[in-house]
Design goal:
With about 120 residues, this protein is mainly β. A hairpin with a 6-residue loop joins strand 4 and strand 5. The chain is globular.
């Protein structure tokens, strides 16, 4: 079993920055495979893709809405993925969920609230 623990959410003014962290743990997660990423869900909306990073090669993908503002990165030794969010907008307000796709199975964190005030 894999556990994902998120941190770093909060309240920030528009134009500000936040950094989210997601630490992975568990016997089956070796830190060498899989894809980790972030999704978000705003009130009344479906969960949507934000960014992913391939653990082994570091290849990244971003949703168009966050390109140029958000950066996903990883620390192999800490089995942690980060989401640096800059130039935040009110439409970025959502619960952000960490995701690990490993061996065809999706694991999710509990979510962390990000609120951007205008």
């Amino acid at each position: 079993q894999v556990q994902l623990a998120e941190s770093g959410g909060g309240l920030v003014q528009a134009g500000g920055s936040l950094r989210l962290s997601c630490a992975a743990s568990g016997r089956t997660f070796s830190g060498n495979g899989g894809v980790m990423g972030w999704f978000r869900q705003a009130p009344g909306k479906e969960r949507e893709f934000v960014a992913t990073i391939r653990w082994m090669f570091g290849t990244t993908q971003y949703a168009d809405a966050v390109k140029g503002r958000f950066t996903i990165s990883r620390d192999n030794a800490k089995k942690t993925v980060y989401l640096q969010m800059n130039s935040l907008k009110s439409e970025d307000t959502a619960v952000y969920y960490c995701n690990l796709r490993l061996g065809g199975v999706d694991y999710w964190g509990q979510g962390t609230q990000v609120t951007v005030s205008s």
